[in-house]
Amino acid sequence: MSPLSWRLVGAGLLAVLLASAGVAAAEGDRPPPPSRIVMILFRGETDVERGFRDFLREEGIEAEITVRSLDRDLTRLPSVISEVRAARPDLVYTWGTGVALGVLGTFDAVAPETHIHDLPVLATMVSSPVGSRLVEHLGPSGRNFTAVSHLASLSSQLNAMRAYRTVTRLAVLYNPIESNAADTVTALRALCATEGIDLVAEPVPLDATGRPRADVLPDLVAKVAAREPQFLYIGPDTFIGDNRDTVTSEAIRHRIPVFTGTELEIRASNAMLGLVAPYYTLGKLAGFKAQQILVNKVDPGSLPVETLSRFTYVVKMSVARQLGLYPPMAVLDYAEIVP
């Protein structure tokens, strides 16, 4: 072969090697595909999901998010779980205790044929992870999920009420067929017994179909108001939350302030006082956990089941003014005052 031919062959080999290196470099520079997330929501998107989406965007985490809302009907959950099993996303996101339990089961009763046990799950808005038996104790679940709760402890909520006024009697209305609500009332009874507080707890009657009756709420508020409690408490109760305007307006009419452990009753209705986790901030915490799972490849079972480290003490001044119950000066030092 002539020297010219060798030079041509060498040039050709060099071109092939350079092209191969270029392809490899291009493949190395190619961004990873977006993470696939399926959201299973109880009642459509909330500020929690807005905070979650904003966190992912701010951190540059590309994600394809598919939303499945149950529209408040948990009987739709099994078909959604079947869809998720087939899709096998990178992360399953749930909203609410009922959805989390339906997806994951309790810590001592997991059915592989029913529950999702082999995909990463991030459960949000779990009111009582221990009380609902989602986990045996706070901390890492040791399973395929982590979770965030939106409620301060009942003792912290009671202390928040006492910071405002003396509490010797507390009232609560609740949906007896909602596990969150019933479990909270059980725990509240135990706490009030320990603290020497009289608890007036009224379950909402059910109609012929077994559903709680909204039409009796004004009468129930009047009934507990006759016992002169210092507060009417609204806890994690979807039915009472859905009827928050009726409950809070009737309470004001009977000159009973409402204390809430969740945000909507004070920001979107007329509770006077609350110790709450801002939904948006809770969504940011959920986004951080998703980052650990999707980007840092942390096992979700090693991440703690937890709530926010700080809650917001909120006073609705318009209601306080209506009731003539102005906040103590000490409360004004740390409370968020809303109109």
TrEMBL record:
Alphabetized Pfam families for the sequence: ABC_sub_bind
Key words, A-Z: Signal
InterPro entries in the record: ABC_transpt-TYRBP-like
Domain of life: Bacteria
Signal sequence coordinates: 1-25
UniProt-recorded name of the protein: ABC-type uncharacterized transport system,periplasmic component
PANTHER family per UniProt: ABC TRANSPORTER, SUBSTRATE-BINDING LIPOPROTEIN, ABC TRANSPORTER, SUBSTRATE-BINDING LIPOPROTEIN-RELATED
